[in-house]
Amino acid sequence: MTKKYSKFLPGSEDFSLESFPFYWVTQVHAQYVLNVDHALKKYGLDNSRRRILLALDSKPHASVSDLSDMVVSKMSTTTKIVYRLKDEGRITRVLLTEKGVEMTNKINDLTSVVLEQSFEGLTPLQIEKMMESLKHVFKNLAR
Is 65 within 8 Å of 79 (Cβ atoms)? Predict the structure, then answer.
């Protein structure tokens, strides 16, 4: 283990869970999902369906494989979600139906409320820097 990063890593003498970067990444993600799930409940949706609908909205005609890559999910999980959305009448042939388009509009409205709450007190520059850092970490992990 490199001395440079030792304070951030489990197993070091001075380690604390709160100093582990991925602790905070997972905490933020879990809280975001809880907030989004709560907001989407009134539409009979959950975070998994939301992710697929928004991915499909941004890339119409995407294959299930493309969707899996976009939402960083196993192909089998994505396939199950796609079939659920199809049964609910929100997609056909991995295309958004009109009902699915309406739902993505509602999702976007709800998401903006959660995002505004999440980023209160941060400047746009701070948010951009955070995004750059998270993208960098993701690329390192995806190698």
Answer: no
CA 108 – CA 104 distance, rounded (Å): 6
Distance, C-alpha 5 to centroid of its chain: 27
Cα 103 to Cα 5, 52, 60, 84, 127, distances in angstroms: 44, 12, 15, 15, 27
The answer to whether residues 47 and 37 touch, using CB atoms and an 8 Å cutoff, is yes
Give CA–CA dist 137/128, Å, rounded.
Answer: 14
**pTM (predicted TM-score):** 0.73
* Structure-token pair, residue 51: 């992710």
Half-sphere exposure of 106 (CA within 13 A, CB side): 15
For 69-94, the pLDDT digits (tens) are 999 999 999 999 999 999 999 888 77
Gap between the Cα atoms of 130 and 41, Å rounded: 29
State the DSSP string of 71-99.
HT--HHHHHHHHHHHHHTTSEETTEE-HH
